[in-house]
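STRUCTURE:
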């Protein structure tokens, strides 16, 4: 864990992007094995894309962009039982949001169903495929194990004519689901279980989002994927490591069929993140069981969730680049993702004032009824971001935690008799405070120094603390949702527990009664701002006129840097 994190720091500080996949592509171009590179991103539309998919998207589209080739978006829509138009639409939206464009090259495996069927017939004619009547259970028990060979089905040696007839009748809808399958006739004793007569077609009477009821047999992933690549002229079919053992089968189909091109498959390690589950199956369960607000819940690792949370696409792309591409599995700290996002937000996010837990301040020597417009910088990191005005009046709100009646020695903020600076406004000194019957502070009384306007005085006094503030007569109420990791454990799926037991009960904390500065009424959805001294926040689509809702994107403190430092101290 720590060593992988340390390795990633080194990757991050190496500007030129290089990895084993890019090296292969560069060599194939240099040595003339290909004229131009063609990649594809092949999602199955059975869920929303997550940050793991972002790695694959950035790799495939990134390579095409860097080497002057092209990248296709191809839906692997071969299982109508799990696929939906909603997912087809969301995937396109998410890839575009991430910053990539497939141009004219939008494809669907279902576009090739007729061609795939013809190729299946060809294999049957060549004696390389057969219709099997075994049940799913029998097929499983005949398959053998990693150490024992499988055994032949009693239907394996059917004649070609009978196979052609049965396969045509499967297509014609004469048989119920599961009655028969079409299998490739390869080798039931192969050391690679994927080559033990893999299934090419199943009977599934279901309506497909694109082909509707035209088909009741559907190709398997293995029978569709390589040939789809071949039809599209894909040169580098890049996928995750779990497909490595499928590669001989991928090659067997393209070798035994008259495909228009012969693509090659390369595997890389999938992205894993601490405190995060990257599996559409589990994410769907979280949605269906109501553990989250939906696929776009700000705690979800989906692209739509991260977007709602306020993570900019650029931050995700930077993170993927930092994480790198390797052949060995590793788990990356989610703090690295947060670091990449914080880095962008620190540079770009406009600063605003918001008070999450307000306590009233009355400035006794400030004129009643006066409103001054204070000029406040939008981003101290970026002078070009300009300034805005924030109204200042006699009664203000500050953060409750910025005052202590009886402060310990390390507390430098407001306290009785103590002077602090109000950002871009005045210095104030606390003279008195009021409590309610429960002993809770309800009002602070202060005086201000008129000579300190804008945040400095002629005598050069420097209060130890600078606080943010809001005018009590110019605030907008808001609900603020604080987000934290969805899973408490860094490795939620380890240890054989049901991961639902590991859900963090404090992953969402809702604060009502928060107040924000007037300019925040018009922040568009999708824009993230910094609430000064508090964190990064973005408006949530649940906002309505009069009911602003903000999501905490991230806190201000970068915890990744600290993890890195620990890693180095531990000698990792
Ligand atoms: P999941 O495992 O989350 O259910 P999947 O692999 O079934 O996802 P696909 O739609 O088949 O989802 O994935 C499309 C592409 O994204 C595939 O090429 C797959 O290898 C890649 N991919 C999926 N998950 C990751 C990940 N965690 N890291 C990198 N690439 C991934
Ligand atoms: Mg998959």
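SEQUENCE:
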């Amino acid at each position: 864990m720590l060593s992988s994190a340390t390795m990633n720091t080194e990757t991050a500080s190496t500007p030129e992007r290089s990895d084993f996949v890019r090296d292969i592509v560069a060599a194939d171009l240099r040595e003339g094995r290909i004229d131009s590179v063609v990649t594809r991103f092949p999602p199955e539309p059975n869920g929303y894309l997550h940050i793991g998919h972002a790695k694959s998207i950035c790799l495939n589209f990134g390579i095409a962009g860097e080497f002057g080739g092209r990248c296709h978006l191809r839906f692997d829509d071969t299982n109508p039982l799990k696929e939906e138009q909603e997912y087809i639409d969301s995937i396109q939206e998410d890839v575009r949001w991430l910053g990539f464009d497939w141009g004219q090259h939008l494809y669907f495996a279902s576009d090739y169903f007729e061609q795939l069927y013809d190729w299946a017939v060809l294999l049957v004619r060549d004696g390389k495929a057969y219709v099997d009547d075994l049940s799913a259970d029998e097929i499983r028990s005949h398959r053998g194990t990693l150490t024992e060979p499988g055994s032949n089905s009693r239907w394996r040696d059917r004649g070609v004519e009978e196979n052609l007839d049965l396969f045509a009748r499967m297509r014609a809808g004469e048989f119920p689901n599961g009655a028969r399958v079409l299998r490739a006739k390869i080798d039931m004793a192969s050391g690679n279980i994927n080559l033990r007569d893999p299934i090419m077609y199943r009977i599934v009477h279901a309506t497909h989002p694109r082909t509707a009821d035209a088909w009741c047999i559907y190709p398997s992933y293995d029978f569709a994927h390589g040939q789809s690549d071949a039809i599209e002229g894909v040169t580098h079919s890049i996928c995750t490591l779990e497909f490595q053992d499928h590669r001989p089968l991928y090659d067997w189909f393209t070798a035994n069929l008259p495909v228009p091109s012969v693509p090659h498959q390369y595997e890389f390690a999938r992205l894993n993140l601490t405190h995060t589950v990257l599996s559409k199956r589990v994410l769907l369960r979280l949605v269906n069981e109501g553990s989250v607000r939906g696929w776009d819940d700000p705690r979800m690792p989906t692209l739509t969730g991260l977007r709602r949370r306020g993570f900019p696409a650029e931050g995700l792309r930077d993170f993927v680049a930092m994480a790198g591409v390797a052949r060995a599995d590793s788990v990356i700290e989610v703090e690295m993702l947060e670091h990449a996002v914080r880095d962008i937000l620190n540079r770009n996010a406009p600063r605003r004032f918001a008070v999450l837990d307000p306590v009233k301040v009355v400035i006794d020597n400030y004129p009643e009824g006066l409103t001054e417009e204070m000029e406040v910088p939008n981003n101290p990191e970026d002078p070009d971001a300009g300034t805005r005005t924030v109204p200042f009046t006699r009664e203000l709100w500050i953060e409750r935690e910025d005052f202590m009646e009886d402060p310990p020695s390390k507390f430098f903020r407001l306290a009785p008799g103590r002077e602090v600076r109000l950002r871009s406004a005045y210095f104030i000194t606390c003279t008195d405070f009021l409590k309610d019957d429960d002993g809770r502070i309800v009002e602070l009384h202060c005086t201000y120094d008129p000579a300190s306007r804008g945040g400095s005085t002629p005598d050069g006094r420097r209060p130890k603390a600078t606080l943010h503030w809001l005018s009590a007569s110019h605030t907008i109420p808001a609900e603020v949702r604080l987000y934290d990791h969805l899973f408490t454990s860094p490795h939620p799926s380890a240890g054989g527990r049901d991961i639902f037991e590991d859900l963090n009960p404090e992953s969402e904390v809702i604060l009502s009664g928060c107040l924000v500065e007037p300019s925040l009424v018009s922040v568009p959805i999708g824009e993230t701002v910094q609430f000064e001294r508090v964190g990064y926040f973005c408006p949530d689509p649940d906002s309505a006129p009069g009911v602003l809702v903000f999501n905490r994107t991230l806190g201000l403190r970068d915890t990744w840097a600290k993890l890195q430092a620990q890693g180095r101290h531990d000698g990792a």
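REMARK: Confidence is low (pLDDT under 50) at residues 1-15.
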